[in-house]
Every structure is written in C-alpha cells, then in structure tokens.
Amino acid sequence: EFMQTFWDIEEAQAKAIQHLVSFVRDKSAFPYLVTFTGFITFAMKTHTDSLKLQVDGCSLLLEILSQALEQDVMMALDENVISCLLDAVRKHSENEELLSLVCTLLMMISASEVAAENLGKAGVIPDLLSIVRNFLHNEKICLSCCGVLWSLAVSENNVDQALLKSAVPVTSVVLQEHLRNGAVAESACSALWALSLQGCLTENEYEPTTALLLDALRMNPERPVLVKNTCLALASLLRLSEIAALRFITDSKGSGINLIKDAYHLHFDDPEVVENICVLTNEMVQYDEVVLDMVSQKMEELLFEIKNCFPSS
C-alpha cells in the first residue's frame, strides 16, 4: 500500500525496496516477496534516472528470482519486467555494476522460452553486443550475455537472423578473450554452437571459428558441457565446409582428432559426451583427407571401443 500510494516519490520507493531487502534471507517471507516483483519493476521504471534505485531494485529481483529457482517456484516475468531491465540498461549504459546485475537477470529470465521470445521482440541483441564490446574484460557480463544469446538462438520462435549473425564475431571475441576461464568459454562455445546451427556464420568465419573452438577444447578438456557443445559446434561447421574440416586436422597447435581422443578418455563415462563425439565423427568421415588422418592416428581403435561400450552409438 505504501509503494502504491507514494509511487511518484523516488525516496519513498527507495526506502521501500531497502526495507524489502531486509526480508530476503527470511525463508518464510519468500512467498510474500514474490508478489512484490511488479511493484519493484514499476518503481524502477518510474524512476529510471535514479542509478541507486536501479541497482537496489535489480539486486532485490535477483535475490527473489534466485530463491524461486532454488525452490523450483515458477515466476511470471512478463514483458514489463523485460522492458524495465532494458530501460535501465539504456539509461545507465556506462555503469558496470548495474549492467552486471541486469545481464545476470536477463540470462536467468531467458531460460523461459516465452521470455526469450519477448527479449527478441524487445530488441535485446544490439544492447547485449554493445555491453560486451564495452565490458569485454568483465567475465560475469560476458558469461551472462553469451547465455542470453544461446537462449535466443535455440528458441523456436524466430529471432531476427541478421541480428543473430551480428552476434557471431562478438561471441568469438569473448571466447578468444576468456579462453582460460572455463565458465565463460563454456557459455561462449554454447552460443557459437547455437548460432552455427541457425546458419548464422559466414563462409569467412568457418575456419577461424573452427580454430577457436579447438583452442577452447584444448584449454578446458575437463568441462563436460564445454566438450559436448564444442563437439556439436564443430560438427555443424564440418557439415557446412570442407575448409573447416581441413583446419580441424591441420591446426598448427595440433590435430582435432587428438583432442577428440583425449576428450573421450576423460569423459568415457558420460554418455552425452560420447554421443556428441559420435555426431562429430559422423561429419568427419565425409571428407577423404580427414578419413586418411583418422586412419593414420588409429581413430578406429577409439571407435571400436565406443561401439563395444555403447552398442547403440
């Protein structure tokens, strides 16, 4: 009632949000906090100029949404929430703290297909790309933005293809910049896989993207999700281009075949990794030069082992 009565007074809204924050750690208060989402976003949207209110509002939304996910509670995050967050991004595009919070929220929200569709309609991609270019050093921002791009690319609802294509070079730069950070590299590889699956890469991007994915695999072999999605991304590129296939076996840092063998031996007990290695292998055998390299590196031994351990592969 207080927030509704004094909706136009910035200080009143700020105090109310600060008061709500004091209840965040109280588990019994959570069902009530969920009902405040609309009031929080309305306050943020009404007082967009107030950076502190935006930061406090996003922090509170993040706490509420995180608890909802932990407790497996569905929250209705409609277009008003998305509009509010994008308003905050556009008004305070230089504030790294706020952008980090907003990008994390957008990544969490985009897990819902309906929300991903609404994000696409709201034109979020140019905002994400601009944020990444300006804050490429920020691992949290890069991870979140790649997560949103993945959700948009795999969404069944059509997102503007030209906008998705514009995300490819930026995602590649993120991967190049954060190759040694497993979590960020994993997020970027997943986004590149989804973008390649949607046909967003140009012919000129096939070879450098193949090399970049091999580097990611080389530096983060212990991460099963990265291995799975990198294998699928490589399979997608090999399906499209012999140039990508040749780069796969002639990379100056070592053949992709050795990386695949190493990945199998690290994750032989993970059926999904093994399945995706098989998907990649299936694309490899369509090129004679790749097959010759597979034979010279005794790839058939690995395939025989997979066949024995996973008869359905």
What are its keywords?
313 residues, mainly alpha, elongated, transferase, kinase, protein serine/threonine kinase activity, ATP binding, EC 2.7.11.1
General description of the model:
With 313 residues, the chain is an all-alpha fold. The protein has a domain at 201-312. Helix content is 75%, strand content 0%. It is built from 19 helices and no strands. The longest helix has 20 residues, at 51-70. The termini are far apart. Its EC number is 2.7.11.1. It catalyses: L-threonyl-[protein] + ATP = O-phospho-L-threonyl-[protein] + ADP + H(+); L-seryl-[protein] + ATP = O-phospho-L-seryl-[protein] + ADP + H(+). Pfam families: TPR_CCP1_N.
* Topology order in helix (H) and strand (E) letters: HHHHHHHHHHHHHHHHHHH
Number of strands: 0
Q: Which structural category fits the helices and strands?
A: mainly alpha
What is the mean predicted local confidence, pLDDT? 92
Radius of gyration: 23 Å
* Strand-residue proportion: under 5%
Number of helices: 19
Q: What kind of sheet is the major sheet?
A: none
Distance between the termini: 61 Å
Regarding quaternary structure, how should these chains be classified? single chain
Topology:
Blueprint: H1 2-5, H2 10-21, H3 30-34, H4 37-46, H5 51-70, H6 79-91, H7 96-109, H8 113-121, H9 124-134, H10 139-154, H11 161-177, H12 182-197, H13 203-219, H14 224-240, H15 242-250, H16 256-267, H17 271-284, H18 288-296, H19 299-309
GO molecular function, one term: ATP binding
Protein name: Serine/threonine kinase-like domain-containing protein STKLD1
EC number: 2.7.11.1
